[in-house]
Design brief:
Strand content of chain C: under 5%
Shape of chain C: globular
Radius of gyration of chain C: 20 Å
Strand content of chain B: under 5%
Strand order of the largest sheet of chain B: 1-2
Chains: A alpha/beta, B mainly alpha, C mainly alpha
Helix content of chain C: over 70%
Shape of chain B: globular
Number of helices of chain C: 14
Order of helices and strands of chain C: HHHHHHHEEHHHHHHH
Distance between the termini of chain C: 18 Å
Largest sheet of chain C: 2 strands, antiparallel
Strand order of the largest sheet of chain C: 1-2
Number of domains of chain B: 1
Number of helices of chain B: 11
CATH topology of chain B: ABC transporter involved in vitamin B12 uptake, BtuC
Largest sheet of chain B: 2 strands, antiparallel
Oligomer: heterotrimer
Order of helices and strands of chain B: HHHHEEHHHHHHH
CATH architecture of chain B: Orthogonal Bundle
Structural class of chain B: mainly alpha
Chain lengths: ~260, ~290, ~325
């Protein structure tokens, strides 16, 4: 069962084609990796799925519904979550507040919040408190619950970001370089976390530069170059694919990142 | 027909003033991203310097004006280094708030020194002339003439002269500019000084026509901001065209609709335009 | 909470002000005006400190509220039980009409957009002489209509003391509303929008809706403050709605601490009461204000509350619970 079907997706910026006639499918429950050289359009693709950009042409069908053209918060509410490469948490809010925000989202009525608090309000509030506590436990950050997110380590912040993404109860999670900025020794923890999330029933789309991580985690991989698909398949196929090797030839970073 | 020509002439005069201030502001706001709300007030200070030079030290109009403009540029450099440079790493809104503080200081210092009543700068060009069938004063013509000359000079400077190009480079790509050896610090000071000077010219030119008083910067700066936004942040043609358009709009509005509601009319038009074209006519200069 | 004693003492002190002031009408006036400034500062703190929107239209809303109630009471003989809600309603409608398009603009553009609105409001109040008497000002605004109270009789509002208690009541209400908002989930949402709106949006939250509601609520607060001011002072002029009047409110918030609870209060009190005791400062008051403003923004961006605030890492919105 595909949870996400992208068909002929195209995004033009003026004369530049950032994404050109891209089509692929993501199976529900998979970890779907997206790789490609710098500038190949990976983040643009996420921006399109997430709603930050409007497609010039093409369809993004999520759970049977075409998301192209919808607003970010509508898409998020439908079940597509995203963890950003940078700026994934609110630095000036505590860890718990970050989680609560993600959990509660739109469900708390404004005026009720200030003036009279009905029983329904209290119930909703409690429900989100419980959800946040549960997620806090899941990402193992109970100790830093009241710390400002800006004051904790990068790796801890990543966990918070993951927690937040989970709190929105997404069906599909877009992870933009989850191991970015994390030293090699710590990447194993992140990999484990990603697996844990998938086992909760969340389908994951993953952008990664670290080849070892992608080959390890992904069930299926999509390779982009200049905004177009040059290969799609399981890790074994991709590893030996001539087009992929050609695209990466000469890229220093692949060597540096441990490929 | 008479009235039309008359109003157009008036509009050009107003337009020159607005264009000069807007140009100064687009340099400072559009290029340096400092929303300097005190710019017109800086111009006011310059006008009072002219007044002081003429009345107490018996200078005549032109020398006084030149000195006052130079002092405005100098003050501009002091302001840029002392107030805005330290804030370069803070959230953007702090520039605006500092500019407010600056405006309060400048306005009230002048108020304390010179008193609140309006003063008259007698430039000696107040004689009424009749040209091409419409009446005007020499001073008004001067405003238009000098305005256009100065605006053209600035345009050429930015486009052709090496300093001008350096300014544009610093605006678009500060780090790149530094790599090429441009002293961005110096450029910032110069840009700010230039902007301050332009505002000083504008207020000095209209000083003899209207009276000068400490709070006179309030309305012009608000209009200048609107012109800069509508013309496109950092766009010189935008600021100039916008300034003249506003001047003409106001003048024609005053002449044909009602002078009582002229100001209101122009602002309402600006709101509508801002709503439909939020990035301005010439877009953001990037 | 050990701070509770402090609140009770403060409240007692405030309740006894009329006694402490004795017959000195001048000081009484300063204190009442300070309360009004606190209300203004609180409204500005809600829209700018909490929601992160630098709106320069809010001075205009103060004027709209003031003039609506003033005109209804003077020209049409409305009682304030009607004119106050009317003032709030008119302000709400105006802010909805203005806020909706303005919130499409980002950052500086939004500030400039609201700046234009503020100027337009002042211009309309100045030029529409048929309605507002223009620059001549609206005079003869009566104090609030007497309030019938069972068993006690009527409370009149024509004395300074009664005005004081009335305005004090509203000031406390404003403070409680702001505190409640800041400690609520919606306050949390607004603060997150202020910090990183895009991230908030990706959590499924409609940021425009929240900003708009906050904009309108804070405008209505300004309008209400304006109405109280109108009936206290007794006359209005278009200057009372000017953007420069609002700048002062922004300054009080910045110096007290934008985004904090006590910031607007401290800022307003300090900058209204203290100058009175430093007579030689009176003439230089505004210059001093400007210097303070630049100084604070450069060296103490979190204001006075930032200086003496409690440990920031414990500043969570939710109380600790199991």
């Amino acid at each position: 069962m595909e949870i996400l079907k992208v068909r002929d997706l195209t995004k033009n910026f003026g004369g530049l084609t950032a994404i050109g006639e891209l089509s692929f499918e993501v199976e529900e429950g998979n970890i779907f990796g997206i790789i490609g050289p710098n500038g190949s359009g990976k983040t643009t693709l996420f921006n399109l799925i997430h709603g930050f950009y409007r497609p010039t042409r093409g369809e993004i069908v999520f759970q049977g519904e075409n998301m192209a053209g919808k607003k970010i918060h509508q898409i998020a509410a439908s079940g597509i979550g995203r963890i950003f490469q940078t700026t994934a948490v609110f630095q000036e809010r505590t860890v718990f507040e970050n989680l609560f925000l993600a959990s509660a989202g739109e469900s708390i009525h404004f005026l009720q919040s200030i003036f009279w608090r009905s029983k329904k309000y209290k119930q909703t509030f409690l429900r989100h408190m419980e959800n946040s506590k549960r997620i806090l436990k899941l990402i193992e950050l109970e100790k830093v619950r009241e710390e400002l997110a800006g004051n904790v380590s990068q790796e801890t912040q990543k966990r918070v970001a993951v927690g937040m993404a989970l709190a929105t109860r997404p069906k599909l999670l877009l992870l933009d370089e989850p191991t970015g900025g994390i030293p090699i020794e710590e990447t194993a923890k992140i990999v484990e976390l990603v697996r844990k999330i998938r086992n909760l029933g969340v389908t994951i789309c993953l952008i990664e530069h670290k080849m070892k991580v992608v080959m390890n985690l992904a069930d299926r991989i999509l390779v982009l170059n200049y905004g177009r698909k040059i290969a799609e398949g399981d890790p074994q196929e991709i590893r030996n694919h001539p087009e992929v090797i050609k695209a990466y030839l000469g890229e220093d970073y692949a060597v540096a990142e441990g490929y | 027909m008479q009235i039309l020509v008359q109003q157009i002439a008036n509009g050009l005069m107003l337009g020159s003033t607005y264009a000069l201030i807007a140009l100064g502001l687009t340099l400072i706001y559009g290029i340096m991203h400092i929303p300097n709300f005190a710019l017109a007030t800086q111009g006011m200070v310059a006008a009072f310097v002219t007044y002081f030079l003429m009345v107490s030290l018996k200078f005549s109009y032109w020398p006084a004006m030149v000195l006052s403009i130079l002092s405005a540029c100098a003050l501009g450099i002091v302001i840029e280094r002392g107030i805005f440079y330290p804030l370069r790493k803070s959230p953007h809104v702090n520039f605006f708030i500092s500019a407010l503080g600056l405006m309060l200081i400048l306005e009230n210092v002048v108020l304390i020194i010179a008193g609140g009543d309006q003063k008259k700068i007698d430039a000696g060009h107040g004689e009424v002339l009749t040209i091409l069938g419409f009446t005007t004063t020499g001073q008004r013509l001067l405003v238009i003439g000098i305005g256009i000359l100065l605006l053209a000079a600035c345009y050429l400077l930015i486009k052709k002269n090496k300093y001008g190009i350096a300014i544009a480079a610093t605006a678009q790509e500060p780090q790149g500019a530094q790599l090429v050896g441009i002293n961005t610090s110096k450029i910032h000071m110069m840009t700010f000084a230039m902007g301050s000077g332009l505002a000083a010219v504008a207020i000095n030119l209209v000083g003899p026509i209207y009276l000068i008083y400490p709070a006179m910067g309030h309305t012009p700066i608000a209009k200048a901001f609107v012109v800069v936004i509508l013309g496109g942040m950092g766009s010189i043609p935008g600021a100039v065209l916008g300034g003249y358009t506003l001047g003409l709009l106001e003048s024609l509005g005053a002449g044909y609709i009602s002078s009582h509601f002229a100001d209101l009319f122009s602002f309402l038009v600006l709101v509508v335009v801002l709503y439909f074209k939020p990035t301005g006519f010439f877009g953001e200069k990037q | 909470m050990k701070y509770r004693i402090g609140w009770i003492l403060a409240l007692l002190f405030l309740l006894f002000i009329p006694v402490l002031v004795g017959g000195n009408k001048y000081y009484f006036h300063i204190i009442i005006m300070t309360l009004i400034w606190i209300m203004i500062a609180i409204s500005i703190n809600v829209v700018t400190g909490i929601a992160g929107l630098l709106s320069i239209a809010h001075g205009g809303f103060f004027g709209i509220g003031a003039y609506t109630s003033g005109i209804l009471a003077t020209e049409h003989g409305f009682s304030t039980f009607l004119s106050f809600p009317a003032a709030m309603l008119v302000t709400a409608v105006c802010s909805l009409i203005m806020g909706f398009p303005a919130l499409k603009l980002r950052g500086s553009y939004f500030a400039i957009g609201t700046l234009i609105y503020g100027i337009i409001i002042t211009l309309i109040l100045d030029k529409w002489e048929g309605l507002t008497k223009g620059p001549y000002g609206l005079i003869g605004i009566p104090p609030e209509t007497s309030l019938p109270v069972p068993l006690i009789g009527k409370i009149n509002f024509d004395s300074l003391t009664s005005q004081y208690y009335l305005i004090l009541l509203f000031t406390i209400a404003f403070y409680l509303i702001m505190a409640r908002l800041l400690r609520s989930p919606n306050g949390l949402i607004l603060l997150s929008i202020k910090e990183k709106g895009e991230l908030t949006e990706s959590l499924g939250i409609d940021i425009r809706k929240h900003r708009l509601i906050c904009f309108i609520v804070s405008s209505v607060m300004m309008g209400l403050a304006g109405a109280l001011y109108a009936h206290y002072i007794g006359f209005l002029s278009p200057e009372d709605s000017s953007i420069y009047m609002q700048f002062q409110g922004v300054i009080f918030c910045v110096i007290g601490g934008m985004g904090t609870l006590l910031g607007p209060v401290i800022g307003s009190v300090l900058l209204n009461v203290v100058p009175e005791f430093l007579h030689f400062f009176k003439e230089y008051r505004l210059v001093f204000l400007g210097v303070l403003l630049i100084g604070f923004v450069t060296f103490l961006p979190h204001g006075i509350m930032g200086l003496i605030g409690r440990d920031p890492s414990k500043k969570g919105i939710f109380k600790r619970d199991g």
